[in-house]
Amino acid sequence: MNHFDNSAQLACHECDQIVTIPELVDGQKAICPRCGYVFTRYFKKAQSRLLAFSSSGLVFLLLSFVFPFLVFTAQGSEKTVTMVQSLQSMGNGTFLSVVIFMLLTTVIVPAVILGGINYTLISAKFDRPLPYTRHILKLVFYLQPWNMSEIFLLGILVSMIKIASLGHIQFGWSFYSFVLYIGSMAATRLFLDKYQVWQWFRHHDKRGYGRER
Amino acid sequence: MGVNDNLDKHLEDHEHSLCQDNVGIKHSFSTCDMCYQSSKRRHGKCRYCGTPIHIRKKDSLQNTVALLITSVVLYVPANIYPIMYTTSIGDELASTIVGGVITLWEQQFYPIAMIIFIASVMVPVAKIMALSWLVYSVKSNRIISRKNNQMMYRITDFIGRWSMVDVFAVTVLVALIQKGNLMMVMPGVALIAFAAMVVTTMLAAFSFESRLIWDNPDKNKGKNIDV
Question: Is A213 on the interface with B (CB under 8 A)?
């Protein structure tokens, strides 16, 4: 299963060298001979793996909103923190901008990315491209650098250590779900290969689906 | 077997074609940054996905410099003003970014102190310096190594987001400890300035055109540059 068009020439995105991408086997990557830019990394069944990880990531992200995230016990009082609650408690006054930024980069952008991947891949899987597939794919790739969920996880761990001396912290189900979501997101990122994803859809177009400008 | 033979032959072919003349701009040949559709044009829209094509990003250096200056300006309040106020039993303690690192170090949280120091002090400065060097290097043709420049750009592009770690840590802390019985954490102005600085340095990295690192104006002919 290899949809590469071998005759296609490309100009490297980073150094403008004109190259052709050779046929690749599982695990191989195509890099630019001049600057080392990675054009694509080929994995067997990347499409199914991508769909599996992106859908599980979406489920874990949604689940991390349902349960308590942390239980913080200090000076005899216990406080259960959920994601929604913590966002609400900060959402006032001058720091609204930071909270909105955090909400966008750690929840909304990743959710749109994962949702978009699911939407487009399901349509590819059943050989029936759904409407706006190209627009959604473009949105997914535009948003990618703004996905900061793994940095948020590191931020949580740093703040945990900062207050570790003040009380007792217990992780809730949502926290574990969030960690699993970060794992799925990392795997999704590994298999989300811009070059190949577009090749899949071009393959469909050749067979008469989609819309050519 | 077959595929690997193909690959070897392919690499040999590449050695031939690997010269300064075989670049897109000389043949008016461009590849869409979004969907890898190649076309014989310098601008316009990609015929497959509709993304605007620029064989070189327009006004790349000006935009990068403008955003870099903005981030330098934002860097000052981000470090002077407190990022967080901790109130415990009536005592209010304001801590700046560097102050927070020192406190963590004194409390013997060495790895965390290192992470915060690297992410919020070293990385932004290194990023601003790296991008300034790249702009200067491209503008004045003072190139030491194109490969190193490219690597520098790639690292800058990749690492920038991680500076946000302190912003997220403070925000989580504020959410955890608020209007409590004895303790309270409030965010400071530096939080906004710092977050804005990270965003502007990210935008500066995006607007930089890395192909300029490899463009070889005729002025440079004869100089000893590795390709």
Answer: yes
Band (B184; pLDDT cuts 50, 70, 90): confident
Q: Are residues A56 and A3 in the same domain?
A: no
Identify whether A92 is part of a domain.
Answer: yes
A104 and A133 co-located in one domain: yes
- Regarding whether A144 and A56 lie in a shared domain, the answer is yes
The SS3 assignment for A81 reads strand
CA gap B175, B185 in Å, rounded: 8
Whether residues B127 and B196 fall in one domain: yes
| Pairwise CA distance, residues A110 & A115, whole Å | 8
CB contact under 8 A, A98 and B211: no
Query: How many structural domains compose chain A?
Result: 2
Q: Could you identify the residue written with the tokens 């300064």?
A: B20
Contact residues on chain A for B192, CB-CB shorter than 8 A: 94-95, 97-98
A144-177: pLDDT as tens digits? 999 999 999 999 888 888 887 777 888 889 999 9
| Candidates A15, A25, A141; nearest CB to B3 | A25
Domain assignment present for A201: no
> In this complex, which of B109, B169, B213 lies closest to A155 when CB atoms are compared?
B169
The domain in which residue A1 lies consists of: 1-44
- Residue B118: its H or E element: none
pLDDT number for residue B180: 59
- Out of A9, A22, A102, name the one closest to residue B171 (CB): A102
Give the residues across from B39 on adjacent strands.
B30
The pair phi, psi for residue B10, each rounded to 5°, is -60, -45
CA distance B80 to B95: 10
Global pTM reads: 0.85
Instruction: State the DSSP code for B224.
Output: -
Quick check: is B226 in a domain?
no
CA–CA separation, B186 vs B179, rounded Å? Answer: 9
Q: Are residues A183 and A79 in the same domain?
A: yes
Mutation site, B35, B38, B41, B147, interface A, largest A CB count within 10 A: B35
